[in-house]
Amino acid sequence: MCIAIVYGSTGGATQDVANLIKEELGLEAELYDISDCSKETFEKHERLIIGTSTWGEGDLQDDWEDLFEEFKTIDLSGKTVAFFGLGNQESYYETFVDGLGILYETAKKNGANIVGDAWSSEGYDFGESKALNDDGFVGLVIDDDNQSDETSQRVKMWVKTIKSNFESK
């Protein structure tokens, strides 16, 4: 079964990053806009890469918000899951990529085998984030508003750290 790359994108930036991840991964993967997904989308894939942008004061992207109650009920035991998130560290200094942290915590509670969750917070300038753990960010973090020149390189570096977890065994 191929890899599912599930993203929520309002302005298109998260979709663009999902496409970059798919291209860099170089493995059989399908892109899914969360607005077209259901619980079954997550249940039929053993390997998932999940992305969201953060809106307002630390809120999930609207389409993720619409499916979030259902997402909280999905058993992710035995599934390999990685996360990526987009945010604006200057405008949302105190809630930078909180949406990423919200999805990560839910997947962790639901038994996911999470990979790629030690992304360095160096090179970012923010106050607080729900997407931080003891090792750094819980997934790839992109600020396409203020650091778009870093996006491609960050995707390449992160995919390199997770790729072996997504190759068929």
Main attributes of the structure:
alpha/beta, Rossmann fold, seven-stranded mixed sheet, two-stranded antiparallel sheet, 5 helices, globular
Strand content: 15-25%
Biggest pleated-sheet summary: 7 strands, mixed
Overall shape: globular
CATH topology: Rossmann fold
N- and C-termini, Cα separation:
11 Å
Per DSSP E runs of 2 or more residues, the count of β-strands stands at 9
The CATH first-level class comes to Alpha Beta
User: Number of domains in the coordinates?
Assistant: 1
The low-pLDDT segments are none
- The CATH architecture can be given as 3-Layer(aba) Sandwich
Q: Tell me the series of helices and strands, N- to C-terminal.
A: EHEHEEHEHEEEEH
Helix content: 25-40%
Distinct helical segment count: 5
Structural classification = alpha/beta
If you compute it from the alpha carbons, what radius of gyration comes out, rounded to the nearest whole angstrom? 14 Å
Determine the CATH superfamily: Flavodoxin domain
Query: Mean pLDDT, nearest integer?
Result: 95
